[in-house]
Write a structure and sequence with these properties.
By secondary structure, this protein is mostly beta strands. It has a domain of 117 residues. It is built from no helices and 43 strands. The strands form twelve sheets. The chain has a five-stranded antiparallel beta sheet with strand order 4-3-6-7-9, with no helix packed on it. It is globular and about 65 Å long.
Length: 487
C-alpha cells in the first residue's frame, strides 16, 4: 500500500510569473489522507517576515489543484495547509487536518515542496516525502537523555544522549522540508544528560553531560550550523543541570550532578561575547534534575530537583546582575523530573507531575499527577504557590514537554517502575493558571520517557528519542513522531 499520496498540487505564482513551485500534500505513513477525514475545503497559506500579511486561498477538496497568485518572491516562506470540514451551510468549517513546512526559498523558484498533513490533536510518524512508497522514517540513531534544538533555518539538531551501549558523541538533523533525519557532525566529546541552549544569532551551546566513561564533562561547545567548535572549559563538570538563555545573550548554567554523583551547589555563566565561562552565584540549595525558567531579564527561577538525599521543594531565584540567589516559595509536593512551563502573560509557573520521592535512576520510580502554580511577584521573595488542586490525567515524570497553543503539551513519561507511557495530554490555561483545561490527545506511536519535544516552525511539535523499559531493561528509542497542534 502506498504510504504517500498527492492530494493536491498548488501552483504558487510569484509576481505574476511562472509557477515558483508545486506543493504536494501527502498523507502520513501511519495515518489517513485528507479525503477520509471528511475534508470539504483545503486552505493554503504562505507567511513570511517579508510579507505584510499571510497570503491565503481556499478551494474545494474535490478540485485537483488550487493557486495562489502574485506572491512576492520571499526567501523565508512558511507554507501551511489546513483541511476543513463544511459548516451547516456548506461553507468553510473547522480544521480537522493540518500540516506545514517552514523557511522555503521562493526566490530560487523551487519546483516542488512536499508536506505531510495529519489529523489535528494526533501524533503522526515523520515521513520521507520524496519517495511515494517509503516506510515511516526514523532517527539515524536511538538516543535518550539527548538534546533537541530548533535551528535558525527551521531544522532540528539532535545531539548526544545515550543508546543501549552508552553515551554518544554523534548528532543528527531533522529537516521538515524532506521529513527525514540525516547524520550531523560529531561533537568533540560524548554527552548524555547535557543541556542545549539556542543562543541569540542561532548558534547552539551544549554544556556538560556525562562522557563515554560516565564522568561529568567540564566543558561547553558550540554548534555553528555546520560543525561543532573546539570546547571551552568549565571549572566543574556537571550533568542533568539547566542552561537558561538570559535577555542579554549570556547563559546561566545551574546545578547538576558532579563528580562521584554528588549534587552541585554552584552556577556558571557562559558569555558568547568572549566565548568564556565564569563562576556565577552559589545556589541556596544544591539541585539536579530540576527545571529552570527565565522570569526577568537576568533572573532565573529554579524549580524542584534532587539533592543528595531527597527531592527539593524550595524554589529559588538566581539574580545574575545582583550576583545572588533568593529564596522563593516551597512546593507543596517536592519533586524532580517534572514538566514545567512559564506563562509569561500571567507571570505564573506551572509545575506538573514528576517524582515525589528521590529516584536514583530516571524510569525506576513512581510518578505523580499533581499540578502546582507559582505566582511570580516583582518582589521575588513574595512569590507564592497560588494553587495545587489540579491533576494530570496520567502520572508522568521525565515527559517530553513543549509549548503549545495556549499552554503545554506533555508526551509520554515514566509512570511507574518499568512502565513508560504512550499517552499525551494538552494543558491550556484560557481560564487562568489555576483552572487548566486538561485534555488527553492522540497516543504516541512509541511509549517513551526522557525524550524531547521541539516546536517546529510550522507550529507542530517533533517528539524524538527517549527510552522505554521491558522486563527491567532500558531500551532507547529511534522512532520520531510529530504532534499536529490544533488550529
Amino acid at each position: 500500500m502506498k504510504q504517500l499520496a498527492v492530494f493536491v498540487a498548488a501552483g504558487l505564482v510569484a509576481c505574476g510569473g511562472p509557477p515558483a513551485l508545486q506543493l504536494e500534500i501527502h498523507r502520513p505513513c501511519n495515518g489517513s489522507s485528507l479525503e477520509t477525514n471528511g475534508v470539504a475545503w483545503v486552505e493554503l497559506a504562505i507567511a513570511s517576515p517579508e510579507l505584510d500579511a499571510p497570503v491565503r486561498a481556499t478551494f474545494g477538496a474535490g478540485e485537483s489543484q488550487g493557486s495562489l497568485d502574485a506572491i512576492s518572491a520571499v526567501s523565508r516562506a512558511t507554507i501551511a495547509v489546513a483541511g476543513r470540514l463544511a459548516d451547516r451551510d456548506g461553507g468553510v468549517g473547522s480544521v480537522v487536518v493540518a500540516g506545514g513546512v517552514g523557511y522555503v526559498d521562493l526566490v530560487e523558484n523551487q519546483e516542488r515542496v512536499a508536506l505531510v498533513a495529519g489529523q489535528v490533536r494526533t501524533f503522526i510518524r515523520a515521513t520521507p516525502t520524496a519517495e511515494v512508497d517509503a516506510a515511516c522514517t526514523e532517527q539515524v540513531m536511538a538516543r535518550v537523555s539527548h538534546s533537541a534544538s530548533l535551528l535558525d533555518d527551521g531544522r532540528v539538531l539532535l545531539a548526544g544522549g545515550a543508546d543501549d551501549n552508552g553515551p554518544l558523541s554523534s548528532s543528527e538533523i531533522y529537516d521538515p522540508r524532506e521529513g527525514t533525519f540525516g547524520a550531523g557532525p560529531a561533537m568533540t566529546v560524548a554527552r548524555s544528560g547535557h543541556a542545549a541552549t539556542v543562543l541569540l544569532g542561532g548558534r547552539v551551546l551544549l554544556s556538560g553531560g556525562f562522557d563515554a566513561a560516565g564522568k561529568p564533562v567540564a566543558s561547553v561547545e558550540l554548534f555553528d550550523g555546520d560543525t561543532f567548535l573546539p570546547p571551552v572549559g568549565m571549572d566543574e563538570g556537571r550533568a542533568f543541570h539547566t542552561a537558561t538563555l538570559l535577555k542579554d545573550g549570556r547563559v546561566l548554567i545551574a546545578g547538576g550532578l558532579g563528580s562521584g554523583g554528588t549534587v552541585v551547589p554552584t552556577t556558571a555563566i557562559y558569555d558568547p561575547r568572549n566565548d568564556s565561562v565564569v563562576d556565577g552565584p552559589n545556589l541556596k540549595a544544591p539541585r539536579a534534575r530540576h527545571a529552570a525558567v527565565l522570569v526577568d531579564d537576568a533572573v532565573v527561577a529554579l524549580i524542584g530537583g534532587v539533592n543528595d538525599v531527597s527531592t527539593v521543594g524550595r524554589v529559588e531565584f538566581v539574580d545574575i546582575d545582583g550576583d545572588i540567589s533568593i529564596n522563593g516559595p516551597v512546593l507543596r509536593t517536592p519533586r524532580s523530573d517534572a514538566a514545567v512551563g512559564y506563562l509569561a502573560n500571567k507571570r505564573a509557573i506551572v509545575v506538573a507531575g514528576g517524582y515525589a520521592e528521590r529516584v536514583q535512576e530516571i524510569g525506576r520510580g513512581t510518578a505523580i499527577t499533581g499540578i502546582e502554580v507559582i505566582d511570580i511577584e516583582n518582589d521575588l521573595e513574595a512569590s507564592a504557590i497560588a494553587c495545587a488542586d489540579a491533576n494530570l490525567t496520567t502520572p508522568r515524570a521525565a515527559a517530553a514537554v513543549s509549548p503549545a497553543p495556549g499552554g503545554l503539551l506533555l508526551a509520554g513519561g515514566s509512570v511507574a517502575p518499568g512502565e513508560a507511557s504512550n499517552s499525551a495530554e494538552l494543558l491550556t490555561f484560557d481560564a487562568g493558571p489555576c483552572r487548566p483545561t486538561i485534555d488527553p490527545v492522540g497516543d504516541l506511536y512509541a511509549s517513551r520517557f526522557a525524550g524531547t519535544a521541539t516546536p517546529l516552525v510550522s507550529g507542530d511539535v517533533l517528539v524524538a528519542g527517549g527510552a522505554t523499559i521491558a522486563k527491567g531493561t532500558f531500551s532507547s528509542r529511534k522512532a520520531a513522531e510529530i504532534f499536529i497542534v490544533p488550529r
